[in-house]
Amino acid sequence: RFVVRQTGVGFCHMEQMSCFGDDHGTLGALMRTLIDRKDNAPAGSYTKRLFDDSALLKSKLLEECDELLAAENDREVAFETADVIYFAFAACARHGVNLAEVQRSLARKHLRVRRRPGNAKPPGWKPGDPSPE
After folding, report:
1. Alpha helices in the chain (DSSP H)
2. Cα radius of gyration (the chain)
3. What Pfam families does the record point to (predicted)?
4. C-alpha angle with apex 26: 23 to 27, nearest 5 degrees?
């Protein structure tokens, strides 16, 4: 008898942990639904509005992040985290980024040896600006 311990993502041919179903649970299903809605949204789809209006998507994601930070108990934290995940995944889907790509990015960050202080970037900072760290 032997046990396989997988490292990384994309073990199967579909870049998932298993070829026999979605073991990412509802997160994988949510991401697939959002990616599908990008091209096949039903009439009146709120998700389609988010894809078409980047200012609305940004506003909703920031709003939900603020609500998460203001949450005062476990139930509120879980509820607001679900909203943040939905809008973050909508931003991913809008740019054609799937869950496997997000997982690979997390894995790469985990493997970095260099430790940074983790300071917040100043308001107005954009990619390409000098790093505050």
Report:
1. 26-40, 46-52, 54-70, 74-94, 99-111
2. 18
3. PRA-PH
4. 85
Cβ-Cβ contacts under 8 Å for 9 (sequence gap 6 or more) = 15, 16, 17, 100, 103, 104, 107
Residue 3 falls inside a structural domain: no
The one-letter code for the residue type at 39 is D
For residue 119, is it within any domain?
no
H or E element at residue 78:
helix 74-94
Is 106 inside a domain boundary?
Answer: yes
pLDDT value of position 17: 58
What pLDDT was estimated at residue 113? 62
87 lies in some domain: yes
- 132 — phi, psi (to 5°)? -75, -5
**46, 53 contact by CB (below 8 A):** no
